[in-house]
Design goal:
With 128 residues, the protein is an alpha+beta fold. It has four helices and seven strands, in the order αββββαβαββα. The protein has two domains: 75 residues, Fe-S cluster assembly (FSCA) (GMP Synthetase, Chain A, domain 3), CATH 3.30.300.130; 28 residues, no CATH class. Strands 3-4-5 form a three-stranded mixed beta sheet, covered by helices on one side. A two-stranded antiparallel ribbon has the order 1-2. Strands 6-7 form a two-stranded antiparallel ribbon.
Length: 128
């Protein structure tokens, strides 16, 4: 049976073509699930829902994991919650981009809203 570590190692070979970094280092992989023997599910996201190379990345993920011994079936599930932010990236990429290690938390109060704690860059841009 394949291990979760082996799956993550295979995913480190999948390069996002536009940014030339691995899908793991970019923080696109949420979870790996080892289902029944030979069956692996990868839950991942993309930088945006309408990402132009989404099909290509999904196919590369499937190929990389399917190449592992004893893997017979790979399912890739695209998830959008929580949304991707640059703060999901590996530490060395955040340093290269000049981002702080932790995502800042902003407080936004919208009319009729009781919860003022908001996280994420979409909240800062749109307040939703």
């Amino acid at each position: 049976m394949v291990s979760e570590d082996a799956v993550y190692q295979a995913l480190r070979s999948v390069i996002e073509p536009g940014l030339a970094e691995t899908v793991v280092d970019l923080g696109l992989v949420h979870r790996v699930r080892l289902q029944s023997p030979g069956r692996v599910t990868v839950e991942m996201t993309l930088p945006t829902p309408h990402y132009p190379r989404s099909l290509e990345i999904v196919q590369r993920v499937q190929q990389a994991v399917r190449a592992l011994p004893a893997v017979t079936q790979v399912e890739v599930r695209l998830v959008w919650d929580p949304p991707w932010t640059p703060y999901r990236m590996a530490g060395h990429l955040k340093v290269a981009l000049g981002l702080p290690e932790q995502e800042p938390i902003d407080s936004i109060q919208l009319p009729g809203q009781t919860d003022t704690a908001r996280r994420g860059w979409l909240h800062r841009l749109f307040g939703r």
